[in-house]
Design a protein that fits this description.
The structure holds two protein chains of two kinds. Chain A is mostly helical. Chain A contains 18 helices and three strands. A three-stranded antiparallel β-sheet of chain A has the order 1-2-3. In chain A, β2 and β3 form a beta hairpin. In chain B, β17 and β18 form a beta hairpin. The radius of gyration of chain B is 34 Å and the shape is elongated. Chain B folds into two domains: 188 residues, Alpha-Beta Complex (Penicillin-binding protein 2a (Domain 2)), CATH 3.90.1310; 354 residues, Beta-lactamase (3-Layer(aba) Sandwich). In chain B, strands 2, 3, 4, 5, 10 and 14 form a six-stranded mixed β-sheet that branches. The chains are: A mainly alpha, B alpha+beta. The interface between A and B is large, with 56 and 47 residues.
């Protein structure tokens, strides 16, 4: 039954979803930047022409990966991780500034974002480390190493001033959870992350009052033994202390320009091209799409350039406006299919490395699409991270594609592992 | 495979559920904003936003006495956003604007090429009258609107070269500085160019909501995202408008230039380059056409001869040579050299005077043999060891007067002129040369070239008895807190020598044989030197440099009249009239003024 040809063994559904997403991206960029003077989609002077080129390049890289030995990425996981850490350090020294954060390295005509490579590297390193036979997640040393692997690139990305990309690393919690991290830790981690963001957005006194009310309600529900009450009060105090320390760190440790940047990211401050404006315009564009949209290339908001950054982080606006609820629904289902398919395939892997890596990239894709779409419709603060396979940009498209193709290769090769 | 490890595969359901839950939340929110609420739909209909650039008023320019030199006047630019300009009745529109269909198509194409969605100028600088007529019916033409701009106006038609002009930005200029958009104005020359960032201020933006009928309805978000323009800084120049106007009046019809400097500060009091033009000509819609006319004019009125014309300084250079010889210790004021008049070798004298001659008389009579012999003795002096060392001493001192280099100040494009270097002579004469070889230098001829600005600066340095400030236009900014400063240069020659040379220069006006005795001004002591510069381009240039009053100079001046002959005939009287005008405020010697005005080189 098994095909000898590598192409015949790759998961066709994943490939189809990938190609569908890339195509939707290209068409959306074409619509966002539609210019009567340059009607050809392959016009390289325009963003859509370049994106078409990027897709081509990504496919070439993708197929090259399929030809590499499957063990390569496991064996070289730390090397790639190390390279990504070095490039993150390098960008702090020689990086060029694009919209406020020094996160790009310029290599002649090519500019590339090391944080994209770092996501890939971290997924590989995590899979390699946790996939080793002697790794036991219940041990403290293992836990610390695991978190260290994730925190190192995360903090380096944060140091570039790119809080959006740094936040992506939070999603690795889900991967570690799948590999045996206590459920409590997951809940604590997620709660801490939520509380962290909330305490930057809302006055600490409101949070404190809300916390007290929540705990009071919990007190009514739970079995009021002395031990439970004490635990609850302990958690409440810890939570309040956490909120206070975040507040303190924000107001006293960070410098003014860093505060401003965070405030802008969180939508608390805006300038003329600020996020508050973007969000408002983006919601109007998506909202005006209605049930079935205004029709491809007929979006008025899109066309008049009312949504800044539309071909990159706000590409979803084009889909929302021109294809309406139907198109948006279809796109979200497509993304859901992508990540669910990946975890389904991950579970059938014989090698722990392949499984963990699969979870790694599924979580990265998931976080990106959920946060990106969430921000365009006002669900989460505006964090500048791209929509995988759709947003304009060679660096992110190439990295997302490589992440996927490495997994496709692992999956195609799964039967060769004893 | 997995030994001693708990199987956590059931957790895929937890993770899968989280994925699905989040997707459901996204879809729910989309359902709400896309289907349930229709406020967004209405917003989008009314949400054609228009970003109107609020241009700041460009800084005004005043002269040293507060006289207005440059101000702004409102004009209107018709803007276009190509993507919104649909269903235009082209014929009616062209008739309204009084343009041909061809112009319409060209402008539209140009705008589209720049950007389909950001506004660009369709027709620039529409007058107030036309504006009223067009604005009334403009709502018929979506995608078009008016933007107020200002153009420069000049109450006095003077100082065109100094003030410079503004014009539309070019593509390279836009690439260099992202502040500019297509159709913006930028300083192209003179003060307008050098002080561009100070003068331009900062653009603001006004966002208005425009309905489907191309009518501006309201401020977007009550102006929350608007920014106010910041007006540009005013500039006060060291220029004296009256003096400048008088200089241009005197130079009318002549080719050449006048530069007057306030010696104690280095500020330019007047800078005349003739022929010149009225700065009002390079304003408005006709700028491009008029500019090309001026560019192709054989008299080259666009060239600022005061800073880019280079001339042999001739006898005016003798002051520097005298100072250097004094400083070297080879001569004193009492050293006397013989002069055989026209029979002198190797350089003859063109003036008749007693022999032997001392420094004061040599300056007064502009005696070539004196300066040649002083120069030769300095070069050959034992104290330098070799003629090369002697030449080096000469070169270092000459260049310390600001010669042979361009100035580092707000005067753009100053030319460096030429002071020949030792290496140059080594190359030309294959290393074998001496004072005799380069004798022309002793009388300011040969390879030496200076600009009128450099010459005026030398006059200032001598007047100041040994120092000068890098010459510059600006006095200060209109805003009180912004001070300006320019480098002070001290010349390494004893003040006493300067005083001696100044005495000789005073004799040029007051002595019995003084070459400028005809240009003497009652009640004002003037020190100066005439020059008659031989040059390969035709008749001699008439040159003068000097300062007044001698004791405490308020003005240093250089005058060059090209191919006009003797320095004493034209340059000296012109300079004396300028000095009189500046110090007394009026000219009491109508005969001299009348005579000077008789020279009209353009009628030849």
């Amino acid at each position: 039954m098994r095909s000898k040809n590598i192409v015949g063994r790759i998961d066709i559904w994943l490939l189809i979803i990938y190609l569908a997403l890339a195509t939707i991206g290209l068409l959306s960029i074409y619509a966002a930047a539609y210019n009567e003077e340059h009607p050809h989609i392959y016009d390289l002077s325009q963003n859509y022409g370049k994106q078409l080129l990027f897709i081509g390049v990504s496919l070439v890289f993708g197929f090259a990966i399929l030809l590499i030995d499957a063990k390569f990425f496991n064996a070289f996981a730390y090397v790639i991780y190390g390279l990504s850490i070095i490039s993150l350090l390098l960008v702090l020294v020689v990086g060029s500034k694009i919209s406020g954060s020094t996160s790009w390295i310029q290599l002649g005509p090519i500019s590339f974002q090391p944080s994209e490579l770092a996501k890939f590297g971290t997924a590989l390193a995590l899979a390699h480390y946790l996939g080793k036979l002697d790794t036991d997640i219940t041990q403290l040393k293992t836990k610390l190493t695991t978190f260290g692997l994730v925190l190192l690139p995360m903090l380096l990305v944060l140091a570039q001033g790119d809080a959006g990309s740094a936040s992506v690393f939070i999603v690795f919690l889900l991967v570690i959870y799948r590999e045996g991290l206590g459920g409590k830790l997951l809940i604590i981690g997620l709660s801490a992350a939520t509380l962290f963001i909330v305490s930057l957005c809302v006055s600490k006194w409101y949070i404190m009052i809300s916390l007290v009310i929540i705990f009071a309600l919990l007190l009514l529900i739970i079995n009021r033994t002395k031990k439970n009450i004490l635990i609850l009060i302990g958690i409440l105090i810890a939570a309040c202390a956490f909120v206070f320390s975040v507040d303190f760190a924000f107001n006293h440790v960070l410098k003014q320009h860093q505060r401003t940047r965070i405030n802008i990211i969180l939508g608390k401050e805006h300038d003329i091209k600020g996020v508050g404006y973007n969000l408002n315009q983006s919601m109007i564009a998506i909202g005006s799409g209605g049930f079935s949209g205004k029709g491809y290339l007929n979006g008025t908001m899109t066309k008049y350039n009312f949504v800044p950054e539309q071909h990159t982080d706000f590409i979803f606006c084009t889909v929302g406006e021109e294809l309406g609820f139907v198109g948006s629904f279809f796109l979200i289902v497509l993304y859901l299919a992508l990540v669910l398919r990946i975890i389904h395939l991950a579970e059938r892997q014989r090698s722990a490395f392949s499984r963990i890596y699969g979870y790694g990239i599924a979580c990265i894709f998931f976080f990106h699409f959920a946060i990106n779409i969430g921000m365009t419709i006002g669900l989460v603060p505006v964090i500048g991270i791209p929509l995988p396979f759709l947003s304009y940009g060679g660096s992110s498209l190439l990295m997302f594609s490589m992440m996927l193709f490495v997994f496709l290769k692992q999956d195609a090769n799964r039967m060769n592992i004893l | 495979m997995i030994k001693n490890k708990i199987n956590y595969s059931h957790r895929k359901y937890v993770i899968g559920s989280i994925f699905i839950l989040v997707a459901v939340i996204l879809i729910t929110k989309l359902f709400i904003i896309q289907i349930v609420k229709d406020s967004y739909k209405q917003s989008s209909d009314n949400n054609t936003l228009r970003y109107i650039t609020q241009y700041p008023s460009r800084g005004k320019i005043y002269d040293r006495n507060g006289k207005l030199l440059v101000y702004n006047e409102a004009v209107y630019d018709l803007m276009i956003i190509p993507s919104q300009a649909r269903n235009i009745d082209t014929a009616a529109f062209c008739k309204l604007l009084n343009i041909s269909n061809e112009v319409y198509n060209n402008n539209l194409k140009k705008a589209k090429k720049y950007s389909n969605i950001t506004p660009s100028i369709f027709i620039s600088q529409i007058t107030k009258e036309e504006y009223g007529r067009i604005a009334e019916v403009l709502y018929h033409y979506p995608g078009f609107y008016f933007q107020t701009r200002s153009i420069r106006q000049y109450p006095m038609p003077i100082a065109a070269h100094t003030l410079g002009s503004i014009g539309e930005v070019t593509k390279p200029e836009m690439e260099r500085d992202s502040y500019y958009n297509l159709g913006d104005y930028i300083g192209k020359s003179g003060i307008e160019k050098y002080y561009e960032t100070e003068l331009r201020g900062k653009k603001g933006i006004k966002i208005t909501v425009v309905d489907v009928h191309n009518r501006e309805k309201e401020r977007f978000m009550n102006g929350e995202y608007d920014t106010l323009p910041v007006p540009g800084k005013d500039i006060i120049l060291g220029l004296d408008a009256e003096l400048q106007a008088y200089g241009e009046y005197l130079m009318a019809g002549k080719t050449g230039s006048i530069v007057a400097i306030e010696p104690t500060t280095g500020q330019i009091l007047a800078m005349v380059s003739s022929p010149t033009y009225d700065p009002n000509e390079l304003v408005g819609r006709t700028r491009g056409m008029r500019y090309n006319e001026l560019l192709n004019d054989p008299d080259k009125p666009l060239i600022n001869r005061a800073i880019s014309g280079t001339y042999p300084p001739g006898s005016t250079f003798k002051m520097i040579n005298g100072l250097i010889s004094l400083q070297s210790g080879v001569i004193t004021v009492n050293t006397a050299y013989p002069c055989s008049g026209p029979n002198s070798v190797p350089i003859k004298c063109t003036h008749y005077h007693n022999s032997p001659v001392r420094l004061y008389d040599a300056i007064e009579n502009s005696c070539n043999p004196y300066f040649w012999q002083a120069f030769q003795d300095m070069m050959n002096s034992k104290r330098f060891g070799s003629q090369h060392e002697g030449f080096k001493f000469w070169y270092d001192n000459v260049t310390s007067f600001g010669l042979g280099r361009s100035f580092n100040s707000d005067i753009p494009f100053t030319v460096s002129g030429n002071i020949p270097k030792m290496e140059y002579y080594d190359k030309v004469y294959r290393g074998v040369w001496n004072a005799m070889t380069v004798r022309s230098l002793s009388i300011g001829q040969g390879e030496i070239l200076v600009t009128p600005l450099q010459l005026a600066n030398v006059a200032a340095a001598i007047g100041n008895e040994g120092y000068f400030y890098e010459p510059h236009y600006i006095k200060n900014f209109g805003a009180p807190n912004d001070s300006v400063s320019f480098e002070k240069h001290v010349i390494n020659i004893k003040q006493k020598h300067f005083q001696d040379v100044k005495k000789g220069m005073q004799n040029v006006f007051e002595g019995e044989h003084g070459t400028a005795r005809m240009s003497k001004i009652p009640d004002i002591t003037v020190g100066g030197k005439t020059g008659t510069a031989e040059n390969p381009h035709g008749p001699d240039h008439s040159i003068f440099m000097g300062f007044a009053p001698v004791g405490n100079p308020q003005i240093a001046i250089a005058v060059v009249v090209e191919n006009a002959g003797f320095g004493s005939t034209w340059a000296a009287p012109i300079a004396s009239l300028m000095i009189e005008k500046y110090i007394k405020g009026e000219v009491m010697r109508p005969n001299i003024e009348k005579r000077v005005l008789t020279l009209n080189q353009t009628e030849e």
